[in-house]
Request: fold
Amino acid sequence: MLPTSLKDDFPILRETVNGKPLVYLDNAATTHNPTQVLEASRKYYEHLNSNIHRGTHHLARAATDAHEKARETISRHLNAAAPEEVIFTSGTTDSINLVANILTLQPGDEILISTLEHHSNIVPWQMLAERSGASLKVIPCNEEGVLDQGAFRNLLSDKTKILALTWISNAFGTVNPVAEMAAEARKVGSLILLDAAQAIPHLQIDVQSLPVDFIAFSGHKIYAPTGIGILWGRKELLETLPPWRGGGEMIKEVTFEHTTYNDLPFKYEAGTPNIEGGIALAAAIDYVNSIGLEEIYSHEKTLIQQAAAALSEIPGIYLFGPEDRVGALSFAIEGVHHYDLGTLIDQMGVAVRTGHHCCQPLMARFGITGTTRASFALYNTEQDIDSLATAVKKAAMMLS
Ligand SMILES: *Cc1c(COP(=O)(O)O)cnc(C)c1O
Reply:
């Protein structure tokens, strides 16, 4: 287990709710920022704030250096072949929309996603399908919330142009065998995008060892602020694909007749980026690495197993997802509405998420409108799990 003193790095965790200490278990929706990250943001605005790349003055150069250094930190963390493969976006949703808007598909082409996807890895592909005449195919899952690999292989064909797959389900914590699935998709010549929004805080990602083309994630799921995210893309591919948004920074030369585009990564970064956000994201990655992703993973694994065991004792409870779930634990209690449960345990200081978790098609697959979801981060403790279990037990008794 990680030391409980790590909680002290996160000022917001000292908040109280109804006079009770905050027990924050909504980390799959957003994580908190440690002092190390808050300091990086503050230092940026106090000492560096300036627009990047075009300035000749001191601050502009210093801000540009910090911004590009942040890109290098993120690139190293992902083991990218070059920092130019790391594109700053506003988040996972923005990154996926970028890819869905630079691919050209034809009627008859197929886009393959899975039942486990977040709306942000469904809707951009539906929009692309509508624009292009391509069709959207969906890999089904079984009762445990695990993807059906036989059905997946049957869905793959030379019509498959892109496989867009979540690495870890934000709703059920299912970890998909993405390396194996990507390798299968490669065989039919498909491109592969991974939604790594949930993978980034829990798993080490090595883009060079994965047969994938794009990876999307958000800063706020890995202890950085909202409004910053990453699209990693394979350089040879990004060099040949067209730009998406037009504007400043993404150009080399503009005349009213014709514009030539900038090199990577700037070609995909139109307009003033979230400079502070990028620097804060790099600080968050440094923070996570100072603790160690393997240590974080096994700490969270222990907590999630303890939570599953404690909650299992409650009569009428059903736990969604496979036993080896990572990050998120979703459950339902017979005769208890998830919203009522969430509201009641909030009064006891326990923050969880209730509802469809931006996965309405997945909820429909299970014939439910939503679940209650506890999700875990490096700062959660065994005491948090006790508080969760006690609160849910009490609430279930009051509600059923
Ligand atoms: C949070 C999340 C997203 C969306 O991220 P944004 O930061 O809202 O863009 C997409 N996919 C998964 C799996 C997520 O957990």
In short: The pocket of pyridoxal-5'-phosphate is lined by residues 28, 91-93, 118, 120-121, 166, 170, 195, 197-198, 218, 220-221 (CB under 6 Å). The chain has a mean pLDDT of 97. The first strand starts at residue 16 and ends at 17. The chain has twelve helices and 17 strands.
